[in-house]
Amino acid sequence: xxxxxxxxxxxxxxxxxxxxxxxxxLLLHGFCEDASVWQSIVEDLSKTYKVVVPDLPGxxxxxxxxxMTIPDMAEVVNQIILHAAIxxxxxxxxxxxGYISLAYADQFPESYAGIGLFHSTTxxxxxxxxxxxxxxxxxxxxxxxxxxxxVLVPTLFSKExxxxxxxxxxxEVGGRCSIxxxxxxxxxxxxRKDYTDVFKKIIKPTLIISGKQDAGIPVSISxxxxxxxxxxxxxxxxxxxxxxxxxxxxxxxxxxxxxLNFCF
Length: 264
Hints:
Helix 4 (127-143) crosses helix 5 (145-152) and helix 4 runs antiparallel to helix 7 (179-191). This protein has helices spanning 39-45, 70-84, 96-107, 127-143, 145-152, 164-176, 179-191, 196-201, 219-226, 244-247, 249-263, and strands at 2-7, 10-17, 24-28, 50-54, 90-94, 114-118, 206-211, 232-237. It has one domain (2-263): Alpha/Beta hydrolase fold, catalytic domain (Rossmann fold). It is α/β, with parallel strands linked by helices.
């Protein structure tokens, strides 16, 4: 069931699957994506859990605003949780969604059952990465969302991934993102703080899912971060790049179920 509400005169949209179930799971998509990135796994998860899947600010049908930050996005997530009337959800974020999950844990430390990072990291951007973010924002403003999506999306999949139709679908989703949404999110990621200390202090269950062929977040970094919190489940998707929910959905579902069983 799709729902929406206004927050500071801006539309926020999310969908609930498995509405009659009690245990809540919140799935946060990444950059140049919308809620549809979870389609390959949400049906299975919703058989057991009430799965809330938002379009984050600037993506899908949720509106963006100038100057938004990762903590701002975490506040939007908090408002979604309140509007959906769910209590202490497990939160799993893909890539940028992982940054927002960590910001939520920082801002609302008593209001979640567990935090999962799906192809994400606790680290802030390096100096080089910050410079690349500015180049990305300029490219998007000059060439548009679809041109950017055509460049970015294929690099998110492993070189061995053969489903051209899935890649094309992901490119189309990225191409529908607004230019403002992509630029604002790019700058928000550039300015985010390092959440390593936040992750280290989490005493609730945590999850890290890493792609062995993820060019952006090496397994070595994910493995180190998995050693930091009190309780962490760490899994490597051997055949995945940065989109394990699409490249290896069965394994992703298994690891998420194991994590959620522990959370609840």
